[in-house]
Amino acid sequence: MRRIDQDHTRFRDIVRGRIKQDLRKYVTSGEMVGKQGKRYVSIPLPQIQLPRFRYGSNKKSGVGQGEGEPGQPMDGEAQPGQAGEEEGKHVLEVDVSLEELARILGEELELPNIQPKGKRTLRTLAGKFTGIARSGPQSLRHFKRTFKEALKRQIASGTYDPEDPRVIPIRDDLRFRSLARREQPQASAAIVYMMDVSGSMGREQKEIVRMEAFWIDTWLRHQYRNLEVNYIVHDAAAHVVDQHTFFHLRESGGTKISSAYELCLKLIDEKYPASEWNVYPFHFSDGDNWSSRDTERCVELLRDSILPGVNQFCYGQVKSAYGSGQFKKDLDQAFRSDERVVTSDILDREGILPSIKAFLGKGR
């Protein structure tokens, strides 16, 4: 291994160790979510400075290990409010792949790998140029196949002369290397996020949901090569929205949770059959519902329609100053013995990691 490769590996190990050490800080700050790309995320790390000697004469007088009293200012020290000449603390931003981030999350929370229940066959490009095509760039021309095609044509047409064995390809003789397509089984998963956007769910509650959704996405994309994400918001009525609207919509009014479950069921029935998809509905709310009758309707929808077609149903209750928290109690009572229903209390940002552990810790 080259010296530069050794240094690069050592640096990546240092970064990985720092992320694992401060994982809770990164999860609760939300800073990484705003710097997310398609494959990488920027992580701020304190810059590591190696100690070094500075040579030269010290012409300034001051207090070192000699005479002086504790608290006595040193000569040349910048006073508060004045510009100084010393270096400040720098922060180094490191790009880490979402795949590596998922592995770190899995190791730290001891998350088991998921065993997919559904298989879906997709036509994908093979990784090697094992196919032959009649068209393509000159850089991929297959000289041996082109020569054989030209030779067969000249022999068949009677223009080949053994005394003068010249073979001159024409356009129809050209053959090129190409990527072969093949059938490849591939597990697919779908996430359906549902969130209460009624007046009792404030900005902080939505930010907690946004951060938890980022880490759930990161882990499930590590487990599934094909992942689709859907967003549903609800107050007294439910709507399918895009990601930006989901996390920034401000609403008011009452809460009817069954409207979200009915829309979720319709989405699953239309797009994600259980034989081909691994489906994960996540619902976040502060626990308020407009009536006990609607809660009974939610339990009925879950038990009879939603649970038979999904891997697991997860409910996260975000603490709010205005929420009663009753809905989680009702779900826990109705599905106490059903492992497909997982609930968690998210009291604040510190509750995000335990909630993710509860949701994904069974590997369903």
Total tally of structural domains:
3
Give the full name of the CATH homologous superfamily of the largest domain.
von Willebrand factor, type A domain
Report on the biggest sheet: 6 strands, mixed
Strand order of the largest sheet: 9-8-7-10-11-12
Q: List segments where confidence is low: pLDDT < 50 over at least 5 consecutive residues.
A: none
Shape estimate: flat
| CATH level-two architecture of the largest domain | 3-Layer(aba) Sandwich
Task: Describe the structure concisely.
Helix content is 35%, strand content 21%. The protein is α/β, with parallel strands linked by helices. It folds into three domains: 1-49 and 91-110, no CATH class; 129-178, no CATH class; 188-360, Rossmann fold, CATH 3.40.50.
What would you say this structure looks like, in words?
By secondary structure, the protein is an alpha/beta fold. The protein is built from ten helices and twelve strands. The chain has three domains: 1-49 and 91-110, no CATH class; 129-178, no CATH class; 188-360, 3-Layer(aba) Sandwich (Rossmann fold), CATH 3.40.50.410. It has a six-stranded mixed sheet, with helices on both faces. Strands 1-2 form a two-stranded antiparallel sheet. A two-stranded antiparallel ribbon has the order 3-6. α5 (203-223) runs parallel beside α10 (352-360) and α7 packs parallel to α8. The longest helix has 21 residues, at 203-223.
